Fold:
Amino acid sequence: MNEVEVLIIGGGPIGLACGIAAQQAGLSYVIIEKGCLANSLYNYPVNMTFFSTSERLEIGGVPFMSLNPKPNRQEALEYYRRVQESYQLNIKLFETFEKAERLGDQRYAVITSKDRYIARNIIVATGFYDIPVLMNVPGEELPKVRHYYKDPHFYAYQKVLVVGANNSAVDAALETWRKGAEVTMVITGTEIGQRVKYWVRPDIVNRINEGSIKAYFQSKVTAISEHAVDILTPDGLVTVQNDFVLAMTGYMPNFELLKALDIQLSDNEKRFPSFNHETMQTNQPGIYLAGVVCGGMDTHTWFIENSREHAGKIMQNIVVSNK
Structure:
């Protein structure tokens, strides 16, 4: 088996930051990523623009140069690739974590889809974008239903139903509408989400007000069929003819992975994982959390810019523990 002091699960921005911190601390490490480099960012919509400015997305002291005040997905992918080039991090792509077993000498035996490792410490930096929150309605398994939205061109001239009222839903609604789609939105609340990017929110509100995009507020999808969707509205049940459903209902961390590592989760709906905010160590010795995964279902607490510091906290604690 390959033996390292730190095994990092997740090769996104925070996983890379942890790798850099381990490298700078002189610790042997490996990063395991089940997809491509910065896999979650790769799965963002192709036209996605970050809310943050480029300097707040920087890691490892590598400057992030953007053509615009707020960088887009493509610029971010190129930036994090350049970070990898700069540090030559020990990262294993398209390799999935499978399980870990605690050994008697305070080490962990880790099995992945491609290899086996012995690690003194494990960092979970898996984010939250890989598992969608389901609507749990009949027909949700149909091929026409998508929980990820990529490119608006695919939906040109189609009848598109968008579920949700936050950034992902608003971007999907506006972009597909501008490609000629007939767009309907289903929103559980009374208005478009207040967290929608401030330069985008007026656009969607105006499109709804003028009738270009139809929106059902205080409503929910109750069933999906091959050519239609049933929507329960305050005025009763409405059936809308439909080609595609974009269910932008949010995402959640991989709780099964956390439970497999015996990390405690809170009993409430937020399912907060247990960890020390000073060291980022969980209730399991030698297992740490970094990044968005720390927030459980409260996925609007942690972002790249306010969780970059997790890497330094973790490495400092590991170095102190090794003395």
Q: What stands out?
A: The longest strand covers residues 116-124. Residues 2-131+251-322 form a domain with the FAD/NAD(P)-binding domain fold (CATH 3.50.50.60). The radius of gyration is 21 Å.
